[in-house]
Amino acid sequence: MNKKILFSPIGGTDPIKNFHDGSMLHICRHYLPDIVYLYLSHEMMEYHRKDNRYIDSIERLSIHLDHHFEVRLIERDGLINVQQYDIFYQDFREEIKKIENDMEKGDELLINMASGTPAMKSALLVMATLAEYRFQPIQVSTPEKSRNKGADDRDDYDIVANWELNEDNEKNAPNRCTEVKCLNLMKMLKVETIKKHIWAYDYSAALSVAKEIKEDLPDDAYRMLQIADARIRLDQSKISALLDDKKYDIYPIKEGNKQKIFEYALALQTKIAKQELADFIRGITPLVVDLLENILKKECGIRLEDCCTKNTKKDMWEWNRQKLQKMGLLEMLDSEYTNGFKKGPVYSHHIAKIISYRCHDQTLNKRINNMVNIESHVRNIAAHKIISVTDQWIKKKTDKTTQQIMDLIKYLIVRSGISVKEGYWDSYNKMNKKIEIFLRQ
Q1: Contact assessment for residue 5 and residue 107, using Cβ atoms and an 8 Å cutoff
Q2: How far apart are the C-alpha atoms of 61 and 53, rounded to whole Å?
């Protein structure tokens, strides 16, 4: 845990050249990695077998700095053509993946971007840009801030002389390492994908992409994506656990059961935007029953418990003929049904008849009947047949578009006693804008 690990290709300037550290040794000097992986091509393996120059120099640096380096070799003795980019891109990906799989929480992976052939450096640069793996790229400038000179003999390499004449061993020698801030292209692409998903109200997909780059996202952005995903699923307990302070405030309606009904209606509204019209139609029933229950209480002064008995096993209200008789509603209901009114579950068309009987608001009753007809007729077709539910199909069956049905729902919500301002219906878009702001931080 909390180890530093260096992955370094080995090139012609390693370990020491022109009286200065090569890039691999210079990174070891200034970052003190605990584990050093040396990637050796055929040519570098030949030098290694000849005089052990790479490990020997690291061991001398270990004594000089009083720091232990564990050196591990990645041997590619058959790798002769070192200018082929594709070879290194694939091989580096596999080797770095192996290293990351062995890393523990808190470990840091450093990558030497300065050693090796141009093909090696290009492969590592692409990996850093795509950010497939989490590592810190390190660049090392030459002592003269220009191209490395090629004067000294790499075949007849004097390990002791190179070490003793190495000017980087001096106390005030400059640190030539630079941490490369690569353009994180993969992160950018995934952030844009997240944005597309949230504006399609597909928060599950957005959160799935966010999990892939969680450590690169602001905490606020990731939490808001979790909240949005829980919101579309109406998981209020999860949202309560995630909400922190007012910066995460998403609810335009805050009052208990009213909030529950309004949030359900908002989620239903997104079904239209996503063209999930079969789900939209099927989702109407529970909402309409709740709305009519509230309208019954608000407009007629009648509560369901005045007319019903709670079935605790099924957690639902069932009509009670004795209570209906006491409320003066049984005779009316018996007359509305051919074989009389039977006790059983509460359906929207039952409540609609009571409201029509007790409330004389013609506009309200007309719209309730329209809603009940849509809910009972079209919903049953969509729920029990394999059909393609389109806006045209809904218009043909109901003489109303999905948006007109949604407008009916909005009207009934207000009449049920929920005070809704027009801007409240834009709540999901406001939440999406807040997520976008957090993603930019």
Answers
A1: yes
A2: 12
Residues 4 and 32 sit within 8 Å (Cβ to Cβ): yes
Other beta carbons within 10 angstroms of residue 433's beta carbon come to 13
Reported as a single tens digit per residue, the pLDDT across 364-402 is 999 999 999 888 777 666 566 677 888 898 888 888 999
- The span from the CA of 334 to the CA of 317, in Å, is 19
Q: Select the more confidently predicted residue: 36 or 242.
A: 36
Instruction: Read off the DSSP letter of residue 159.
Output: H
Residue-averaged pLDDT of the chain: 89
Residue 249 has pLDDT above 90, yes or no: no
pLDDT of residue 212: 85
Tokens of 274: 């996503």
Crossing angle of helices 256-273 and 284-300, in 10° steps, is 140
**Counting beta carbons within 10 angstroms of the beta carbon of residue 376, is it exposed (0 to 12), middle (13 to 18) or buried (19 or more)?**
middle
202, pLDDT greater than 90: yes
**Structure tokens, 138:** 């390190």
SS3 label, residue 65: helix
Tokens 């994180």 -> residue: 184
Cβ contact 155:116 at 8 Å: no
| Spatial separation of the C-alpha atoms in residues 96 and 134, rounded to whole Å | 10
Residues 139-157: tens digit of each pLDDT: 999 887 544 554 565 678 8
Q: What is the residue-wise DSSP string for 82-104?
A: TT-HHHHHHHHHHHHHHHHHH--
CA 323 to chain centre: 52
Position 418, amino acid: I
CA distance linking residue 423 with residue 322, whole number of Å: 45
DSSP-derived pairing of the beta strands 316-319 and 20-21:
unpaired
Q: Is residue 179 pLDDT above 80, yes or no?
A: yes
Which pTM does this prediction carry?
Answer: 0.67
Q: Indicate the helix (H) or strand (E) that contains 311.
A: strand 308-311
Closest CA to 97 of 77, 80, 74, 115: 74
